[in-house]
Amino acid sequence: MGQYKQITLKSQNSNNPAKQTRSQLYRGTSTVNENSKSFALYDQELIKQDILNHFNIKKGEKIYNPNFGSVIWNTLYEPLDRKTREILLADVEQVIASDPRVQARTIDIIEREYGIQLNIELEFVAYSQIEKIVYTFDRENGLSTV
């Protein structure tokens, strides 16, 4: 399971406000969005992309880290009975809990004709903001968000 560490960077800038630049709390890159002019992602968008990436990897697929990823891909062809729902809920809770920048408020698992839909209400801890994210796992089209 991938772990995130909280780090603090101390600025080496002088106290001159003209020299200080505005920075985001979290910064990263993503080449997923073809329509984007910049590959830079910040704050909540970066966190959502990291969680999406985590769900996109099948458990056991990551080299040197077989516990990373999600079992959702292994359950898409299974009936969504009580046992499968419990396995999925535990897996989603584990994926969300692996990122200390967010907390899951609610998790709803919905069976769709060709897959599974997750409705997750996420709280972004550093921002005290809540956002509902919908992930659709489709047997034919893969993972998408609404």
Q: How would you describe this protein?
A:
The protein has one domain: Nuclear Transport Factor 2, Chain: A (Roll), CATH 3.10.450. The chain has helices spanning 43-56, 72-75, 82-97, and strands spanning 27-29, 40-42, 102-112, 115-124, 129-138, 142-145. With 146 residues, the chain is of the alpha+beta class.
Strand order of the largest sheet: 3-4-5-6
Shape: globular
Query: What value does the average pLDDT take?
Result: 81
Strand content: 25-35%
Might you state the CATH topology name?
Nuclear Transport Factor 2, Chain: A
Largest sheet: 4 strands, antiparallel
Distance from N terminus to C terminus (CA atoms, Å) equals: 26 Å
Helical proportion, percent range: 10-25%
Question: What structural class do the secondary elements suggest?
Answer: alpha+beta
List the SSEs and their pairings:
Layout: E1 27-29, E2 40-42, H1 43-56, H2 72-75, H3 82-97, E3 102-112, E4 115-124, E5 129-138, E6 142-145
In short:
This protein is of the alpha+beta class and 146 residues long. 23% of the residues lie in helices and 28% in strands. The chain has helices spanning 43-56, 72-75, 82-97, and strands at residues 27-29, 40-42, 102-112, 115-124, 129-138, 142-145.
